[in-house]
Structure formats: C-alpha cells, structure tokens
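Async update (no meeting this week)

Hi team, since we skipped the sync, here's where things stand on the single-chain job. The sequence we agreed to prioritize is pasted below, unchanged from the tracker. I ran it this morning and attached the output directly underneath so nobody has to dig for it. Comments welcome in thread, and please keep replies under the output.
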Amino acid sequence: MKTSNVTLCLGISLILLASSRAQMFSDEKKTINENQSYTVRGVINIVYLPVPDALELKEPIQSGYFLFTPQRFTVNGKDAEGKPVQFNGQQMFPLTPDDDQVAKIKAALGKPVEVEVRPFIRHTRHHLTDVLFDILSLKIL
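Output:
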C-alpha cells in the first residue's frame, strides 16, 4: 500500500510540475506594459530594413536583431509626448542589446530562446516598429 501511495504522489507531482510549466509560458497573458520586465519565448534573427535617411547615408540598409514570438502581444505605453498609446498584435520586436549581449545573441540566431525583456515605445523615426525590447537576459532553449 505504501508503494502505491508514493507512486501516486510522484505521478501527481509530475503532472502538477508539467502543468505549471505549461501555464508559465501559455499565451493567456498577452498584454504587456512599457518599462516592465517580462519573460518571452521566440526566435531571434537578423532583419535588414531600409533606413528613413536612405538618401543621406552611404548604406541605405540597416540590420538589427529581432525577436519573433509565436503569440501576439498588446503593448501599452506612452508616446514621445506622454500620451497613452496601445499597439495590438505585435509579434516582431527589435532588440536593443548592449555590446556584451551581442555575442550571446549571435550564438542564439535561429534557435528557440527565452529572453527577459523590457518593452519600450519607439521615440524616433529610426525605430521602424512601434515597440522595441531592451534585452535583459537570454537563454537558449
């Protein structure tokens, strides 16, 4: 009888562990706010885009690291004038890594990752998307 109780408890524990892990990364919580930290899963790739000053610069194409997420996010924040804004259906986020993070990002290109990020709303015309992510940490899955 003791063996079956231990087996039952172990089985229930594994089920609870698996379900809590699945809930931790579910797509239920899709609304995020500017300047708060979040853990997000996706894939990082390099994206090449034309810059607004294409005629003034020698190289009219810029590249950047972008996180592509399987779920769509609604992002709340404030524009450059301090007015509330909301962007819906966001799945592609430019990353703003510091120099130390670039090597980690290069190693993670095209692989599933889990990143801790802080979203912010664009404030110049050079930000080609409405929402960008400051990257705080990165883990290859």
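Quick observations from my side:
The first strand starts at residue 31 and ends at 33.
The beta strands are 31-33, 38-50, 61-78, 84-94, 112-121, 131-140.
Reply here if anything looks off.
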